[in-house]
Amino acid sequence: MIIERVDESVTENFFEHDYKDRGMLKWGGFFLSDHTSALKKMKAEVEEKLLPKQDQKTVSSLLLSAWKRKRIVHVQLLALRNEEVESYTGLVMGHNDEGVVIQENNEAQNNVVVELELVRNVHNYVDNQSWKNSWKNDVKK
After folding, report:
1. Residue 70: predicted pLDDT
2. Which domains does the chain have, with CATH numbers?
3. Cα separations (Å) of 138 from 66, 121, 132?
4. Which one has a higher pLDDT value, 1 or 60?
5. Which of 20, 39, 54, 140 has a C-alpha 20 to 30 A away from that of 122?
């Protein structure tokens, strides 16, 4: 087996132009499940701001549109829970006598029934993108 000597300029060129660093992705295998769940919990604890109040017609229209198109919605309620904004994110599954049924985490046992009169704001997500990214954009407007 013959090993050729490589010039340093070739190595530098490779790392500057061809090599794609995967960043934190390469370390994913070293994290324990406890670590990843703690990181997810920290990320979820981002403080949510109150969004502008929408009228009932707008709320109903957005929820109907999300239901028809199977889009994820973020529903923010008027009431605060423990001085924090109460909200739900998920798919609109339909409605019953009590209100609109929202399924969180794609699991039937995570269905939440929300009364329309208690809704402050509804955000419909195109392409079911992450609600936090678009929520930040809405707050800046």
Report:
1. 87
2. 8-44 (no CATH), 56-140 (2.30.30.100)
3. 18, 11, 10
4. 60
5. 39
